[in-house]
Amino acid sequence: MAKVLMKGNEAIAEAAIACGCRLYFGYPITPQTEVAEYMAKRMPKVGGLCLQAESEIAAINMVLGAAAAGARVMTSSSSPGIALKSEGISYIAGSDLPCLILNVQRGGPGLGGIQPAQSDYNLAVKSAGHGDAHMVVYAPSSIQEIVDLTAVAFDVGDKYRVPVMMLADGALGQMMEPVDLESLGERKPPEKPWATTGHGGLRKKNIINSLYIEPEELEEKVRARFERYAQIAEHEARWEEYKLGDAEICLVAYGITARICKTAVEMARRRGIKAGLFRPITLWPYPSRQLDEACRRAGVKRVLVAELNMGQMVDDVRLAINCRLPVAFHGRTGGVLPSPEELLGEIARLDAEIKEEKD
Amino acid sequence: MAELVFGRPKSLSDVTLSYCPGCTHGIVHRLVAEAIDELGIEGKTIGIAPVGCSVFAYNFFECDMIQAPHGRAPAVATGVKRALPDRVVFTYQGDGDLAAIGTAETVHAAARGENITIIFINNAIYGMTGGQMAPTSLPGQVTTTSPYGRNPKIQGNPIRVCEMLATLDGVAYAERVAVDCPKNVLRAKKAILKAFKTQIEGKGLAIVEVLSSCPTQWGKSPAEALEWIRTAMMPYYPLGVYVDRTGGDAE
C-alpha cells in the first residue's frame, strides 16, 4: 500500500472522508485549524460540505442536526472550544445520536497555551457535558492510529448510537508521519431507520429528543443507555501492552506520552530494569480489567502513570488495580513534554525502591 | 350526507396541547400545520422544537421532529438542511430562545441565508419558567425579574428581531404578524405559508414573527391579553413585511 506523509490534522480529515463523512462543521482554533482548512479544500471535491460555524456551540449543534438527519458527521476543536461544545455533546448523548468529535488538546485552564497537552482527560472521560452520559474516547498515539481509529470510531458510534471523541493533542495534530489511507477502503454508514429524514408517508414520525418530563421515564431512558454503555465496556475496550511480560514496573500512558514512555522503557531495559508499558487506547471505556490482569500476570511491583497534565488518569489506574500496588505519577503540563530521560529517572527511582524491598 | 367543512389539520397531532388557556401558541401551531398540509409537505418536513413553552412541539406536529438545545434550533436546522437539502426544515422558537440565548445562532443562520423557515413567537415574557423578563419585554413591563418594570437604563432595551434581521442579505422574507383577531390570524396564515414557499423555492431564510399572548404570565384574562398585544406590543413592534427578497414569486 502506498504511504503518504501527512499531518495528523489532515490525516483524520482524509480518513473521515474515506469513512463516508460528507459533513464537517467547525470553528478555527489552534492547534486544530488545519482540519477545517483541509475539509474546506477536500469536501467540495467529494460532494461534501465544510461549513465554518459562528461558534463551537453552533458547530456542535449543526452536528446534532446532521446526525439526527442520519448523516456521518464530525467536528473538531481544541480544549477551550471543546468546553463550549459540552452542552451540545450532552444533548447528542441524550438524544442517542452518533458523531465524531476531535479534540486536539492544548494546555489549560482558561486560554492556557497552544502547545500539546492532555489536560482534557477528565472532560472527555468523566463528564462530556451535564447529566449521566458518556462518550467513547479514543486516544491514538500515531498518525496511522488516528486514521485507523477514525474508522473504528464512526462504526462504534453508529452501532451504539453514541458520540465518540478522538482525543489527540497538539503534537499529534501538527506532526507529520507516513500513513496508509488505502487500507480503509470504501466505507459506508449503516441504515438509520430512526433518523429524522422526513417520513414520506411511509412510516410513523421519528422524534429526536432528550427531554423526558416524567422522572420514571427519564430514569428508564438513562438506564437503557447505560445498558448499552455496559455492552461498549464489554466489547469495545482497546489497549496495547509493550514489554509487560516480565515487567516489575508498569508505565501507564496514552497518546503522545505513551510514545515517549516506550523510549523510556527501552532505555530502562538496556540498563537491566524490567519496565513495560500499558497503553490504554480507549480512555472510555477504560481497559481496567485488562490493566489489572496485565499487572498480575507480570507480577508488577510499581505502577508509573505519565500524562501531560497534573494526574487526571491516576485515579482510574488505582481503581483498575484496586489500589493493590503503589501508583507513582510523572506529569508535565502547560504544553511541556517530558523527556525520555526524566521518565527514566522516575523508573530508576522506582526500581531502587523495589530493590530495597527485596534486600 | 354530512360534509366535513372544518377539522384538525392532518399535520397537527391529535393530542392535548400543553399550553395554558388563552395562550395563542395553539393558533400558531394550527396555522403551521395548515400550511404544511396545503403545501403537501408533511412527509418531507422536519421541525425543530425549542426550549420554552413550545418545547413539547415535537409531540404536536405529525412530521419528523427534533428537540434542540436552548437557542440552538437554527444551528440544528442548518445541520439537517445541509444534510438533506431537498427537505423542508422549520424551527419554532420563542423570544428567549431566539433573541436571548440563541441570538448568535439566529443572526448567523440569517446571515448565511440558510434555506429554512423560522416561526418566532414573541410574547415578551418567559412563560415556561414563570414570567421572567424576555429580550422582547417592553420598557416598563413588570416581570418577576423586572418587578419594578423593565428600566432600559438598568435592564437594557428590547430587541426588534425583524428589523434587525432585515438588514442581512441572507434573509429572503421577514414579516411581523399578530394573532390577536381573526383578520390578523388570516394575515399570519398567509405569512407562514409564504415563509414555507420561500424555502421550497430556495430563496433563503424566511422568518415570521408572531406577536402572541401569555395571559398566565402577563396576569391578564385571555381577552385582556389580546387587547395588550394591540395596545402595548404593536406600537413597539409594528406589524408588516420588513424584507421581501423573494421577487414576489413566493406569494
Number of helices of chain B: 9
Average pLDDT, all residues of chain B:
97
Count of DSSP H/I helices of chain A: 12
Number of domains of chain B: 1
Would you identify the regions of chain B where 5 or more consecutive residues have pLDDT less than 50? none
* Biggest interface and residues each: A-B, 40 and 36 residues
Uncertain segments of chain A of ≥5 residues (pLDDT<50)? none
Q: How does this model look, in words?
A:
The complex is a heterodimer of chains A (359) and B (251). Chain A folds into 2 domains: 4-194 and 209-235, Thiamin diphosphate (ThDP)-binding fold, Pyr/PP domains (Rossmann fold, 3-Layer(aba) Sandwich); 241-358, Rossmann fold (3-Layer(aba) Sandwich), CATH 3.40.50.920. Chain A is 42% helix and 19% strand. Chain A contains 12 helices and 15 strands. Chain A has helices at residues 8-18, 33-42, 56-68, 79-94, 121-125, 143-160, 170-174, 215-235, 255-270, 288-298, 314-320, 340-358; strands spanning 4-7, 23-26, 49-52, 73-77, 99-105, 136-138, 163-169, 176-179, 207-208, 239-242, 249-252, 275-280, 282-284, 302-307, 327-331. In chain A, the strands form 3 sheets. Chain A has a 7-stranded mixed sheet, sandwiched between helices. In chain A, strands 10-12-11-14-15 form a 5-stranded mixed sheet, sandwiched between helices. A two-stranded antiparallel sheet of chain A has the order 1-8. In chain A, helix 9 (255-270) packs across helix 12 (340-358) and helix 10 (288-298) crosses helix 11 (314-320). The longest helix of chain A has 21 residues, at 215-235. Chain A starts with a strand and ends with a helix. The model of chain A has no long low-confidence stretch (mean pLDDT 97). Chain B is α/β, with parallel strands linked by helices and 251 residues long. Chain B has one domain (25-244): Rossmann fold, CATH 3.40.50. Helices cover 36% and strands 17% of the residues of chain B. Chain B has helices at residues 25-39, 73-83, 95-101, 103-112, 152-155, 161-165, 182-200, 215-218, 222-236; strands spanning 45-49, 64-67, 88-94, 117-122, 171-178, 205-211, 240-244. In chain B, helix 3 crosses helix 4. The longest helix of chain B has 19 residues, at 182-200. Chain B is globular and about 50 Å long. The mean pLDDT of chain B is 97. The chains are: A alpha/beta (359), B alpha/beta (251). The A-B interface holds A 23, 25, 49, 51, 53-55, 57-59, 61-71, 73, 87-88, 91, 95, 196-202, 205-211 and B 42-46, 48, 55-56, 58-59, 61-69, 72, 75-84, 87-88, 104-105, 107-108. Strand 9 (207-208) of chain A pairs parallel with strand 2 of chain B.
